[in-house]
């Protein structure tokens, strides 16, 4: 059997390696358009920033090593331009010319390419992308003489590129069309990332795009849609990717919005043709929405399973639906997410509850305790739908636990019973994941009723705001018009609350949501219409961007009016 694989890196090379392990007699040919067939795409920004100094460390395998270890015929700088699905051949362009190559099984793993929006001046030599090893080498070479850089796009790669450039001493501005950085992240979580970017000296412009790039003799100028002009010695284009599938569509293989449509085993609409990786339509495991998922983990796993279906069709497992687990480092912070966010859940018509917590990553009495800002979405019946976390330590393992729970179809209250490792340097007896389950269970059974930071304007008009922090915390900054009664005094001052409420609901708050939850139980059992602010003032400040904003000359976003006011 001859298996021809179009595209290397994650999906293609996983399919090739698995196919060899299953069938020593198969002829396996990998056709890669670029000069590298197996490289660490996710490591590219760290080479630019100097943390991975040797570019050769990014090359996972070479054609020679693959030939020696797995007897795979890897042909770099070979571009497939056409597929004849009836004749079962592909047309290949290389330095040797054009040839027609027959196949018994064809695997399409062309991946994705950087989106290039119609921005005048985008062809300037100072504009770079960051998708391949040559991209990383060119960008790193340009950094030495650069003083100012503009990164277009604040997704994962954009933020990693911005941090890498800042690490090299370049003044960096990020431009993001969405209203906050890392658009898949919820707004209140992205606020924390924005603060860290500010600490790193990176200026952020959100809610605007690039209108044009004006080339000059010594530098370019990126002109934003709000008129802001940003001088730049280099520009990094990172506004997203699209499936690299023009040759696939020309062959009549079914695609959807440019992505290849497959069945549950990776089979395309053409007999004998499979597809895997970034160029394939995936069905989201939580929402059922259809979209490509450009993540290395799913690409590697689906490539392997496609090889199983080619060589063991009767026993191959179906391709799992992705849940979109992802993680990124931003300065001192780790930012991670899994499952669906509000936008996806709303688009899918799924009703959900959200909880916010800010527990420490390990025992508070052990040195180095720091908060994990944790957000969890769940369905009305408690089924876990998504989670996001931001913190300086312990974020990765909590998101991985929650990703496993989502894959297993667990409910949020099930998290209470997870038997997780505990020792003071590593966690808490009630791990943040367990605590999320406890809060969720209280919400679902009515023990805890929440109100949300987004509801503040309405709450101010219709309810009594009760601040249950200490008097010192209240004096340092509070919501104007709120009544301050520390939660430890509340039982003795219920008449005061009743008089101040004057028949209105009581909406309770504290710093993180713990003390206000205790106060809510007192009030609810005393007959009050009470609810506790989810995530407390930490979350409220993030939602309303209290103190946020960046100043860097004309056109910069002004700082909003503070939400919290100190006592007079």
Secondary-structure map with pairings?
Elements: E1 2-6, H1 9-22, E2 27-32, E3 38-39, H2 44-48, E4 59-61, H3 63-70, E5 73-76, E6 79-84, E7 89-94, E8 97-102, E9 105-108, E10 112-114, E11 127-128, H4 133-143, E12 148-152, H5 156-167, E13 171-176, H6 187-199, E14 203-206, E15 210-215, E16 220-224, E17 229-232, E18 234-237, E19 241-243, H7 246-250, E20 255-256, E21 259-260, E22 273-275, E23 281-283, E24 290-292, H8 296-311, E25 326-330, E26 333-339, H9 342-347, E27 352-357, E28 372-379, E29 384-391, H10 395-407, H11 432-444, E30 450-451, H12 456-462, E31 464-467, H13 471-476, E32 483-484, H14 494-501, E33 506-509, H15 514-525, E34 530-533, H16 536-543
Parallel strand pairs: 1-2, 1-9, 2-5, 9-22, 11-18, 12-13, 12-18, 13-14, 30-34, 31-32, 31-33, 33-34
Antiparallel strand pairs: 3-4, 6-7, 7-8, 10-19, 15-16, 16-17, 20-21, 23-24, 25-26, 26-29, 27-28, 28-29
Helix pairs in contact: 1-8, 6-16
């Amino acid at each position: 059997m001859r298996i021809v694989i179009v595209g290397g890196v994650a999906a293609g090379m996983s399919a090739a390696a698995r196919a060899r392990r299953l069938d020593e007699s198969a002829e396996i040919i990998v056709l890669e358009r670029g000069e590298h067939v197996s490289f660490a795409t996710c490591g590219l920004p760290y080479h630019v920033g100097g943390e991975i100094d040797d570019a050769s460390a990014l090359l996972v395998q070479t054609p020679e090593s693959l030939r020696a270890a797995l007897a795979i015929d890897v042909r770099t700088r070979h571009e497939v331009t056409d597929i004849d699905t009836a004749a079962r051949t592909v047309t290949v362009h290389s330095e040797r010319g054009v040839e027609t190559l027959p196949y018994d099984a064809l695997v399409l793993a062309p991946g994705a390419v950087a989106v290039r929006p119609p921005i005048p001046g985008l062809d300037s030599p100072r504009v770079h992308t960051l998708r391949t090893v040559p991209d990383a080498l060119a960008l790193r070479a340009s950094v030495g003489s650069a003083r100012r850089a503009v990164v277009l796009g604040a997704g994962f790669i954009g933020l990693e590129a911005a941090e890498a450039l800042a690490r090299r001493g370049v003044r960096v501005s990020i431009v993001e069309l969405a209203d906050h950085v890392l658009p898949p992240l919820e707004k209140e979580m992205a606020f924390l990332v924005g603060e860290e970017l500010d600490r790193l000296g990176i200026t952020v412009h959100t809610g605007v795009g690039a209108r044009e790039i004006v080339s000059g003799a010594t530098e370019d100028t990126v002109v934003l849609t709000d008129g802001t002009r940003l001088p730049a010695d280099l520009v990094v284009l990172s506004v997203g990717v699209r499936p690299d599938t023009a040759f696939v569509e020309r062959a009549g293989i079914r695609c959807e919005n440019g992505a290849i449509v497959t069945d549950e085993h990776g089979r395309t609409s053409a007999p004998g043709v499979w597809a895997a990786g970034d160029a394939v339509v995936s069905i989201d495991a939580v929402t059922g929405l259809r979209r490509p998922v450009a993540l290395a983990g799913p690409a590697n796993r689906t490539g392997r399973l496609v090889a199983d279906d080619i060589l063991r069709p009767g026993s191959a497992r179906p391709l799992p639906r992705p849940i979109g687990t992802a993680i990124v480092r931003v300065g001192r912070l780790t930012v991670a997410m899994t499952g669906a966010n509000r936008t996806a859940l709303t688009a899918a018509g799924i009703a959900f509850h959200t909880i916010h917590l800010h527990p420490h990553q390990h025992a508070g009495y052990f040195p180095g305790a720091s908060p994990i800002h944790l957000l969890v979405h769940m369905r009305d019946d408690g089924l876990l739908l998504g989670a996001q976390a931001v913190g300086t330590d312990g974020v990765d393992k909590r998101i991985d636990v929650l990703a496993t729970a989502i894959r297993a179809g667990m409910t949020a209250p099930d998290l209470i019973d997870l038997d997780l490792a505990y020792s003071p340097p590593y966690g808490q007896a009630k791990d943040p994941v367990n605590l999320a389950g406890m809060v969720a269970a209280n919400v679902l059974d009515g023990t805890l009723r929440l109100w949300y930071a987004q509801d503040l304007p309405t709450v101010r008009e219709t309810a009594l705001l009760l601040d249950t922090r200490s008097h010192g915390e209240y004096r340092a900054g509070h919501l104007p018009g709120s009544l301050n009664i520390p939660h430890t005094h509340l039982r003795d001052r219920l008449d005061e609350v009743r008089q101040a409420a004057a028949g209105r609901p009581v909406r309770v708050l504290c710093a993180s949501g713990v003390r206000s939850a205790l106060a809510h139980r007192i009030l609810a059992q005393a007959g009050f219409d009470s609810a506790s602010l989810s995530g407390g003032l930490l979350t409220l400040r993030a939602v309303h961007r209290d103190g946020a904003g960046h100043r860097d000359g004309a056109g910069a976003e002004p700082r909003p009016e503070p939400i919290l006011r100190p006592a007079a």
